[in-house]
Amino acid sequence: MYESQKERATYDNLADLYTIILATEHLERAYARDAVTEQEYKTECNKLISQFRLAEKVALGKTMTTETFMQVYQMDCPLATERLLKMGVPEQIKSSDNARDYVVVTVAETVQFFITTMDAVQLDQKTVDVLQPLLSDLMDALTRLPETPKDFIPNRIVGCWLQKLNLLRAVDELNDEDTKQLDHDLGSAYAEFTRFLKRQK
After folding, report:
1. What does R_g of the chain's alpha carbons equal in angstroms?
2. What residue segments make up the domains of the chain, in order of their start?
3. Shortest CA distance to 161 belongs to which of 101, 95, 111, 86?
4. What residues pair up with 127 in beta bridges, in sequence order?
5. What residues does 173 pair with on adjacent strands?
6. What is the pLDDT of residue 201?
7. Would you identify the CATH topology of the domain 5-87?
8. Read out DSSP for 82-141?
9. CA 33/CA 120 separation, integer angstroms
10. pTM for this one?
11. How far apart are the first and last CA of the chain?
12. Residue 103 has pLDDT above 70, yes or no
């Protein structure tokens, strides 16, 4: 199957990526059937998403996209595709325990992730492997906020950008036009987020 250590490493990396995608598909199905607890699901899903980002970068590089990889190896994993390539965060679970403390912590985390992501863009960070995890963390915090409108503008803005980056390879970069648009959109999302907080007082 391979004739050198380099070829063996290549096959091993592809196998790792294949395994992570398959594991994500099984985890999503298990969660849908209530076969795992919410905490088990979230812990394992976060781990798989992190592993996927690294494995995708190492295994594929600039050779092909993950979609092409899945087609070549005939992977029918619609739930994993949705979770890894489109959403990039676990299915959100809103806790009802210690509600006030939960809200305070979630708001603080959301502010922190907004600032960190906006700072990265303003410092001219353009690569997907830098921006995607930041947007993923921000989206995770936003979707944990209680009592947000169904069509909450920050969720829509950040979600659109996250889906766009999830379709790119880790080594890809945003062009100058997209970088400026992302900076503008994040500013708009943050302004709407602060208006939402003021209305809650």
Report:
1. 18
2. 5-87, 99-200
3. 86
4. 173
5. 127
6. 60
7. de novo design (two linked rop proteins) (1.20.1440)
8. IIIIII-SPPP----TTHHHHHHHHHHHHHHHHHHHHHHHHTT--BHHHHHHHHHHHHHH
9. 39
10. 0.61
11. 64
12. yes
Instruction: For 46-95, write each residue's pLDDT tens digit.
Output: 899 888 988 888 888 777 888 899 999 999 999 999 999 888 888 876 55
Tokens of 93: 């679970």
Grouping H, G, I as helix, E, B as strand and the rest as coil, residue 75 is coil
What CATH code is assigned to 99-200? Answer: 1.20.120.1130
Position 132 scores a pLDDT of 92
Mean pLDDT for all residues in the chain: 87
Closest CA to 65 of 74, 56, 76, 77: 56
Amino acid type, 57: K
How does DSSP classify residue 81?
I
> 3-state class of 173 per DSSP?
strand
- Which residue from 49, 70, 75 is spatially nearest to 170, judged by alpha carbons? 49
